[in-house]
Amino acid sequence: MMARRAPRTRAYAPDPDAPTRDCDMAGCEMPAAYRAPKSRTELRHYWWFCLEHVRAYNASWDFYKGMSPGQIEAHLRADTAWQRPSWPLGQNGAPVAPEDLLRDPLGVLRDGAAAATRRKKPEEERPPKELREPLMIMSLPWPVTWEDIRSRYKELAKRYHPDANGGSREAEERLKVINQAYATLRRGLAGEPARNGNASEQAA
Hints:
It holds the Pfam family DnaJ. Keywords: Chaperone. The chain has helices spanning 51-60, 69-79, 98-101, 108-124, 129-137, 146-160, 169-188, 199-202; strands at residues 34-39, 42-49. It is mainly α. The longest helix is centred in the C-terminal third of the chain and has 20 residues, at 169-188.
């Protein structure tokens, strides 16, 4: 046997808390079984009407009556936060500590970030494309310091200087290539200020 459904409350069922009194509409002596707010500013203070007059009252009710467009917009914005003040992310506008912004008790995000760092590491250890050939010419590893470059350049300049090679044309051409590589590394090394003069003067 199927259980009977509980009867629905009628949309205009009398208020169980209604006082024993006549309708507040002037001249009406019907029982006041329905309440309606007195005004926008008195939403918890009620008129008590009969069914006919509460319907008429509700039909003519305009919550925003007497408000300017700006006041209406401000009220609608306040309604989105249930008429309560709101603050930026945090407690009452206080800044949020990074560790409190997103908790990760199992370390899932931490491990993922570490793995991403490991994947990027080989790429980060490679020199910029424009510095790869100069580094190879001067037989320098990467990363490299400015002092390493200066020291290596002095060594190569001394080795391939024409005066040290009996005026060898081949040594002279090799030194030109080294000078160009040195100048490129000097310009490309992060934070190294530009200097005037040729490479051999700067290395002195």
